[in-house]
Amino acid sequence: MNSRQLQALVRTVPDFPAPGIMFRDLTTLFADPAGLAATVDQLASHARSIGADAIAGIEARGFILGAAIAAACGKGFVPLRKAGKLPVPVIEAEYELEYGNDRLELDPTLIADDANILLVDDLIATGGTALAALGLLRRAGARVTHGAFAIDLADLGGSKALREADCAPFSLMAYPGK
User: Which residues form the Phosphoribosyltransferase domain (predicted)?
Assistant: First the structure.
């Protein structure tokens, strides 16, 4: 499936979670067997092309894609969790959202020194969450030079922010605006 065919499977919900936002809902893509398979295949191909040793996914929709990509590539999956979800000592990073702050946590024992980790999430918008995840993975000793996303909300600057942090973003689809 090409980008246009994948975009046709993404539901757009106007004014969610706030007025003026066009929410790109990937659950409709995930529910379509051919769409999900094509998305995972294309992102897994990217993971193989960069020689990823493991895949790290951001909770929650990054878990769906990241775990599937890891399985397709025969690699391990590293979860980047929301605060308070891991039962072991963690490292953490706080980041800003348009409506407040949040925190990601990582079990650093899951990261082998200098492992080439591909950072995965469903969507990149402002880049706040991805940059927090990138920082955590690097603090744990990973080499993270690439991120992979199903969707890039290009006008919001997240891809640019990742490039400025020496992490090349890759996405299957791009949407303008919010």
Answer: 49-146
